[in-house]
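Translate sequence into structure tokens.
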Amino acid sequence: MSDLVERLKTQLGESLVAPAEDVPKRALAGHPLGTPRALLRPRSTQDVSIILKACHAEKQPVVPWGGRTGLVEGAHAEGAVALSLERMNRIEEVDEAGATMTVEAGCVLQTVCDAADAKGMFFPLDLGARGSATIGGNIATNAGGPRCLKYGVTRDYVLGLEVVLADGTIIRTGGRTHKNKTGFDLTKLFVGSEGLLGVITEATLKLIPLPPFRATMAVGSMRHAVGALQAILAAGFLPSALELADEFTLAAAAKYTGSKRLGVCKAHLIVELDGQKNSVRGELPAVEKVIRKFKPLFVERGLGDIQCERIWEIRRVFSTSLKSTGLKKLNEDIVVPRGRLEDLFRFTAKLQKKIRLPIACFGHAGDGNIHVNIMLDANDAAAVTRGEAALDELFKQVLAWNGAITGEHGIGLAKKRWWPLAVSPEVRELHYALKHILDPNGILNPGKFVE
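Result follows.
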């Protein structure tokens, strides 16, 4: 391994290899990253190609790193070369007429969104980690977020990719047009591939017009919050976001923020509308009228970006608030058909009584994607055992409802043991076949769900 690194230093320069003290021990999400054999920081696609060609020849495992914000241990790199795209962070072009942006994979999501906004365009992806998550990582996990109900997930905005395959071959998929039906859709093959099929180095993204106005409602203490959510959609409205949180989550947020109002809520719903100013102002009272039928404790309106962000500040601290309880959270981003949301909340309520551990639920209820957090004392072995067993029950029930064990985080290492439950043997075999074709030596992100 030392010979390989020395050869790469000679070819690419000393600064390619990070000093040992610069190698992070944990991901930003808190998961251990293992001990990589080396951390390499290429500056270009050609650098990545040279690195992968050398590693492929020596069958040296490689784990691509973006912002290391993932929640399923996808960046775990024990004994591997950690290949960080952090230096490849340029916005190469914003094409206003063509409504596209071409960026390097290490570009941070917030930078992409700001660059689009500056041109009056919109890249709708919105994540809690948007200040540190990278576009390459977002694409590799097909990241979601609150705006998916109206705008879709990452794959809906990826028009073309530059990818370096395991043997160092550089390919380009897709292009810069908003429609393209030339052969198989190889671009979408790499979206969500979790670093198992190739290293994404550049992406061409679709942009859409920036909605000039937004309005948000925070709705508290509703016994039938899911009913209100369904009624909004049934009335013909399509909010950009419909977020729901349960009582335990709100109690933690109330303690963390000092909010007295959240502490008395049984549930909390955030509804956001966007579009032309007159249309949003016209829809807002109509949506509120639907909500009022469910007798909320309060409805708080926010008009315009500043007021809306004040409402979203509460949503953005939910995860931090749960961590501040001192309990470890087993965070699962399950998805159920929207008609099963009531069933899901009833199921988790029964489950927490059974395992004698609190369960906090919040998330993107508009598309059925709920973060189910089993809260436990990590030093209590019995509690850990009960919590882990409860995950088996949760996933089995979600799958029985034709749901999914992950909506936006991916499989990685953390959900590997449930992978065989989630897909059929035939589908698993197809994954293995694709992996073998594109990575015959199995060097890319080894040990994860496809080996």
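Note: The radius of gyration is 23 Å.
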